[in-house]
Amino acid sequence: MIQQKGNFKDVIVFGFALFAMFFGAGNLIFPPYLGIITGPEWLTAFGGFTFADAGLALLAVMATAKYDGDVIALFRRAGGKLAIVLGCADILCIGPFLAIPRTGATTYEMGIMPLLGDAIPIAVFAAIFFILTYILTIKPSKVVDIVGRVLTPALLIALAVIIVKGVISPLGPIVEEPMIQGVVGEGIAQGYQTMDAFAAIALASVLIVSLNEKGYNTVSDKLKAIMKSGVLACVGLALVYGGLCFLGATVSTMYGVDAQQSQVIVNITEGLLGQTGKVILAVCVALACLTTSIGLTSATGQFFEKLSGGKLKYKTVVLAVCIFSACMASIGVGGIIKVASPVLSIVYPPTIVLVILAFFTEKIQNDNVYKFAVYTSLIVSILTVIQSYGVAMPFLDYLPLKEFGFNWVVPVLIAGVIGHFVPGKNSELENA
C-alpha cells in the first residue's frame, strides 16, 4: 500500500515529468507570437491557447489511463483493424516520423546555430542528441524519474529567468488594439496546432510503467495519481504560457502578423539578457526538446513491444527509433514537417474523437456511434489535406469552425447521432 507521503512526492515528480514531456520547442514558439498579434487582449488569447493545448492533453492522458496505457484498447470500439492502423499511425507520427526527429532539428536551429552558427554540422549534432536520448531512455521505468527529478527543474529555472526579467523590465509598450479579429479563436487554433493531445496518448503509457513500478496496482489508483499530476502539469504550463504571451505583447509595437515565430523568442531573449539570453534560450530549447524526445521514444518502444507481443524488444525499438530520428533530423525542421505533417493532420481528428468518446464508453451502448464518428472525422480530414494541395473542394469551406481547424466537429456530431440509431454491437461489453 502506498503511503500518503509517497503519493504527494509521486504527484510532484509525475507532474513535472508531464510538464516537460508536453513542453517542446513549439510550446516555446507559439505563445510569444500569440502575444504579439493579440496585444492588449493577450490574456484572453492565452486562455484559449491553454484550453486547446494543456486541456486537450490532460483529457488524452486520462482517457488512455482508463485503458491502462493501451492505445489499441482505447481505439478498439471503432473497429479492430482501424484501431491497429490508427494506433500505429499515431505513434509513428509523434515518434520517429515527425515529433522525435523534430526535437533534435529544433534544438540545433534554435539553440546551437544562434550561438555557434554552422560550426557543428547538423548530422553530427543529431547523432550526439539521439545518443543522449538513447542513454536516458533505455530503462523505461526510470524515464519519469529522470525527466521529473532532474531535467524539468532545470527547464523551469531557465524559463523563469527569461519570464521574470521580461515582466520586471518590459521591452516596450503593448499596442492599443489587437492585430487580428477573434482573439479567443486564434488562441484555440494555435493551441490545437501544438497537437499535444496527440503526444499525450503515447506518454500515458510511460506514466503507467512508472506507476506500476511504484506499486499503483489498480486503474482507479493510477487515474487519481495521473489526474493530480496532470492538473499540476497544466498549472505549470499555464503559468509559462501566460508569461510567454505577455513577453510577446511587450514587443507588439516592433512586430506584425508576418513576424517569424521561431525568431521572435530568440530576439526577445537577446533583448532582455543580451548574449547571456541566447545561452539561456539554448538551454531552454535543449531541455524542452530532450525531455520530449525521451518521453516519446520511450512511448514508441513500449507501444511496439506490446503490439508485437514481446517479439520486438523495447531496447531494440528504442535503438531503431534513435537511429532513424537522427537521420530524419538531418533534413531540418522544415523538411521533417513537409514529409510527415499531412499524415499528422489526417490522424489527429479521429484520435481526438476517440479520446472524448472514451469518457462516455460505459454509457454508449452501440459501437456504430464510434465507427460513424471516427470514419467521418477521417474522411473530412483526408479531404481537407487534399484541398490544401490545391484540389477544389468548395463544400469544405462551408463547414462550421473551419477557421479554428475544427471543421470536422459538426459532421462528427451528426454522424455519431446517426450511428446511435443504426443497429450494432457493443464490443466493449462483450470483451469485458
Automatic annotation (TrEMBL):
GO CC annotations on file: plasma membrane
Pfam families with a match to the protein in the record: Branch_AA_trans
InterPro entries: Brnchd-chn_aa_trnsp_Livcs (IPR004685)
Location of the protein in the cell: Cell membrane
Keyword Transmembrane (UniProt): yes
Keyword Phosphoprotein included in the entry's annotation: no
Main location: membrane
Assigned keywords, A-Z: Amino-acid transport, Cell membrane, Membrane, Transmembrane, Transmembrane helix, Transport
Topology in membrane: Multi-pass membrane protein
One GO-annotated biological process of the protein: L-leucine transport
Record GO terms (molecular function): L-isoleucine transmembrane transporter activity; L-leucine transmembrane transporter activity; L-valine transmembrane transporter activity
Transmembrane segments: 12-30, 42-61, 82-100, 120-138, 150-172, 192-211, 231-251, 279-304, 316-337, 343-360, 372-392, 404-422
Function (record text): Component of the transport system for branched-chain amino acids.
Family as reported in the entry's similarity comment: Belongs to the branched chain amino acid transporter family.
PANTHER family recorded: BRANCHED-CHAIN AMINO ACID PERMEASE BRNQ (PTHR30588:SF0), BRANCHED-CHAIN AMINO ACID TRANSPORT SYSTEM 2 CARRIER PROTEIN (PTHR30588)
Protein's recorded name: Branched-chain amino acid transport system carrier protein
Source organism (scientific name): Peptacetobacter hiranonis (strain DSM 13275 / JCM 10541 / KCTC 15199 / TO-931)
